[in-house]
Write a structure and sequence with these properties.
This protein has two domains: about 5-140, PurM-like, N-terminal domain (60s Ribosomal Protein L30, Chain: A, 2-Layer Sandwich); about 160-295, Alpha-Beta Complex (Phosphoribosyl-aminoimidazole Synthetase, Chain A, domain 2), CATH 3.90.650. Helices cover about 25% and strands about 25% of the residues. It has seven helices and twelve strands. It has helices at about 5-15, 60-75, 95-110, 180-190, 200-215, 235-240, 255-265, and strands at about 30-35, 40-50, 80-90, 115-125, 135-140, 160, 195, 215-220, 250-255, 270-280, 285, 290-295. A seven-stranded mixed β-sheet has the order 7-9-6-10-8-11-12. A hairpin with a 5-residue loop joins β1 (about 30-35) and β2. The longest helix is centred in the first third of the chain and has 18 residues, at about 60-75. The two termini are about 15 Å apart.
Length: about 325
């Protein structure tokens, strides 16, 4: 069973009240209604040594920064403002105060940039030689704009991405910047119909928008912004489609709103039009020679480690 299938199964087991939980299982964050019209959004990610990073090659500070940044990226995916986080760690036997200080530095390196307070957590230690585990839960707020969900894409929408894709496993996955500022600018300045952060690969995450919006998509291979790292690989396009851990934004908006974006985008990160939402009910890609082929999701799946993509993380 694939990750999206089990997530859908979880959602079916208990029907949540839309008045109390406007956004439930299946998006980048869940929304919980408080008193009146107030609400908070919550997300969580667990990262494992040997899966999401390798402590024989990276520092604890780098691993902790990544753990915090992937949760911040979930906030960006829905254009919300981070508020606070709690961090839980399972330490290998022999880890102590010095290691915890390095973990703390990595967490604050990410959280301080976006005013997301570290407000608590938990520390446990394995009895045997088990891997380092770090799990973070984060809450955010709407701050003037509604959360942008995966399920709002409309036929005719333009499909866009920020930044450049592929090759993040060569090092960028440890030091990326969550696109919180860019997401907020998008949501405050334009009508964004759907959005997701590219954690598991373009082909995988675009499929999530298509599935939840009940639409199809046609993207153009020549339009995909391929990173310099991906171009070092044997198949750069496959890298951009499937590697994952880019943590860029993938979003859709109408032609009219895209025209406004072309004239109003003032952020340093590039935005690229890569295709359109269709009524085909399937994902397709137009190759360089002009032929159109079905695009099979090939990114990372947490429950199928033999997927084409790299190890990754997401809600």
């Amino acid at each position: 069973m694939r990750e999206d299938e089990i997530t859908a199964w979880f959602a079916e087991q208990r029907k949540l009240s839309p008045e109390d939980f406007p956004i439930g299982i299946g998006d980048d964050m869940a929304e919980v209604r408080l008193a009146g019209e107030e609400s908070v959004l919550i997300t969580t990610d667990m990262l494992l040594d040997g899966v999401h990073f390798d402590l024989s090659k990276v520092t604890l500070r780098e691993a902790a920064y990544k753990a915090m940044a992937v949760n911040l990226s979930d906030c960006a995916a829905m254009a919300t403002v981070p508020v606070a986080a709690v961090v839980c760690v399972a330490l290998p036997k022999g880890f102590g105060f010095e290691e915890l200080k390095e973990i703390h530095k990595g967490i604050l390196q990410a959280s301080d940039k976006y005013d997301c307070a570290l407000v608590g957590g938990d520390i446990t230690v394995w009895r045997d030689r088990e891997p380092f585990v770090i799990s973070i839960a984060m809450i955010s707020r709407c701050a003037g704009v509604k959360p942008v969900k995966r399920s709002g894409a409309k036929v005719g929408d333009v499909i866009c991405v920020t930044g450049f894709l592929g090759g993040a496993d060569l090092g960028r996955h440890l030091k990326f910047e969550p696109r919180i500022k860019e997401a907020r600018f998008l949501a405050e300045s334009f009508v964004i119909n759907s959005m997701i952060d590219l954690s598991d690969g373009l082909s995988c995450d675009l499929n999530r928008i298509c599935q939840q919006s009940k639409v199809g998509a046609l993207i153009e291979a020549n339009a995909i912004p391929i990173s310099a790292d991906a171009k070092k690989k044997k198949e750069p396009l496959a890298s951009a489609l499937n590697d994952g851990e880019d943590f860029e934004l993938l979003f859709t908006l109408s032609e009219d709103e895209f025209s406004k974006l072309l004239n109003g985008w003032n952020q340093p990160v590039a935005v690229t039009r890569i295709g359109a939402i269709t009524d085909s009910g399937k994902m397709q890609i137009k190759k360089a020679a002009g032929e159109i082929e079905n695009l099979v999701p090939g990114g990372y799946d947490h429950l199928e480690r033999d997927c084409k993509g790299k190890d990754d993380d997401g809600l």
